[in-house]
Write a structure and sequence with these properties.
Keywords: Cell membrane, Membrane, Sugar transport, Transmembrane, Transmembrane helix, Transport. The chain is built from 24 helices and no strands. With about 425 residues, the chain is mainly alpha-helical.
């Protein structure tokens, strides 16, 4: 482990790339997942006030819950669309430029949500959430590809963990800023929703100082001098002729192979088992229910018997558990390996969810204490983070010109609103 840390510290521009790409990439995805919990009551109040002001009509509770569920879930719809179109955009414009332009979408969405209370329009929150979903879908794909292609080959596993780490940091930040002592108040909640504009501006200002992905420069543009220059800037001023020769051999092998779209990738029989692996990994993450815990954490912990004034802090605990697990994951992945960590994560999630099912049954049938729901949410967050390793799978099993399609395909599964839709429908 120390030798890998030393190698990483010898590449300061790679470290800068991790932070700059992460804060405007998967951080925004994680933030948008958790940020809606704290201001949920204020947003429902805005919806009701808007209808009274426009139509002189006060909505019933189930109407408010339906509109609220749609406002929450539209983020995932935008994310799914963004992930599906990301592959072609990344191949055409490049990883770095795609990340840069993507920030304008986040800023626009944040401004819409920031002004929603002033304009007395909950539809602006819906539009802003949809734009933030598009931003997250594209950013998730572009960030993953850009970061892994900029990292030295022997550090890609460790660097790849930071993709999930910034998702966890984003979730924790959304929960932390949402407490009543900070932005989770009736006056400041629009600033809570608009906070991602600042992270987008940060990346917009700093990312131009970083080089483009060496792989994109060589494979897509065929610019070897620019590729060599980018590698030396990122990895240090040493001789990397061996690495470049390996890249050239890979390019020569793919000389007559054109880039595939997502649909062509699905239809390709030669990669069927790789596709099945990706689908199983990412769909199981969706079905673990962790996104529902974040989107509806107050409802989950309220049902677990947590007092109302303690709900924000109980929700904050899930984000802290996931973030701490991610840091530990970063420290041990090179020694333990991806397969072992994935296996442990999925076994842990399966065990936790099985115990949760039994506890819920006992709570309904025998009126037992619901406290285990609270504990299981924390464990689910920890094990879910261990299983976020699938984000680096496409870079391992894909091939050169198919990288963008693989990334787009896999990230689209991570943004499917399966658990949110199921939880919303269960209320009616």
């Amino acid at each position: 482990m120390p030798e890998y840390l030393t190698l990483l510290l010898n590449c300061p521009l790679v470290i800068a790339t991790i932070f700059i790409a992460g804060i405007g990439g998967t951080f925004q995805y994680g933030y948008c997942v958790s940020v809606m919990t704290s201001p949920s009551g204020f947003i429902k109040e805005l919806v009701n006030k808007t209808c009274i002001h426009r139509y002189n009509l006060s909505l019933e509770q189930w109407h408010l819950s339906l509109i609220w569920s749609f406002t929450v879930s539209i983020f995932c719809i935008g994310g799914l669309i963004g992930a599906l179109v990301a592959g072609s955009l990344i191949s055409k414009f490049g990883r770095k430029r795609c990340l840069l332009f993507n920030n304008f979408m986040a800023i626009t969405g944040a401004v819409l949500m920031l002004l929603s209370q002033t304009a007395m329009s909950f539809e602006m929150i819906m539009a802003g959430r949809f734009l933030c979903g598009l931003n997250s879908g594209i950013g998730l794909c572009a960030h993953t590809m850009y970061l892994l292609e900029c990292a030295p080959r022997q550090l890609r596993e460790m660097v790849g963990v930071t993709i999930a780490s910034f998702i966890s940091l984003g979730k924790f930040s959304g929960q932390l800023l949402g407490i009543s002592e900070l932005l989770g108040t009736e006056k400041n909640w629009p600033w809570l929703l608009g906070f991602i504009s600042f992270t987008a501006l940060f990346q917009l200002v700093t990312l131009p100082f970083l080089p483009e992905s060496p792989s994109f420069l060589l494979f897509e543009r065929g610019d070897r001098p620019a590729c060599e220059k980018a590698i030396k800037r990122l990895w240090g001023n040493n001789d990397y002729s061996k690495e470049i020769e390996e890249m050239l051999k890979e390019k020569a092998a793919l000389q007559n192979v054109r880039s595939h779209s997502v649909l062509e990738l699905i239809q390709n029989q030669t990669v069927r088992w790789q596709l099945i692996t990706i689908v199983v990994m990412f769909v199981s993450l969706q079905l673990c229910g962790i996104n529902a815990v974040y989107f509806y954490s107050f409802e989950v912990f309220r049902a677990a018997g947590i007092q109302e004034h303690k709900l924000p802090y109980a929700a904050l605990g899930t984000g802290l558990c996931e973030l701490s697990t991610s840091v530990a994951f970063f420290m041990i992945i090179q020694r333990t390996g991806k397969k072992v960590l994935l296996f442990r994560g999925y076994v842990g999630m399966s065990t936790t969810l099985a115990l949760l099912t039994v506890t819920l049954y006992l709570q309904v049938s025998q009126n037992t204490s619901p406290r285990f729901m609270h504990i299981s949410a924390y464990f689910d967050a920890e094990y879910e983070n261990l299983s976020l390793n699938p984000f680096i799978l496409p870079s391992i099993i894909c091939h050169g010109c198919h990288t963008a399609a693989w990334s787009s395909f896999s990230c689209s599964f991570s943004l499917l609103p399966v658990d949110q839709v199921c939880l919303s429908l269960s209320k009616y």
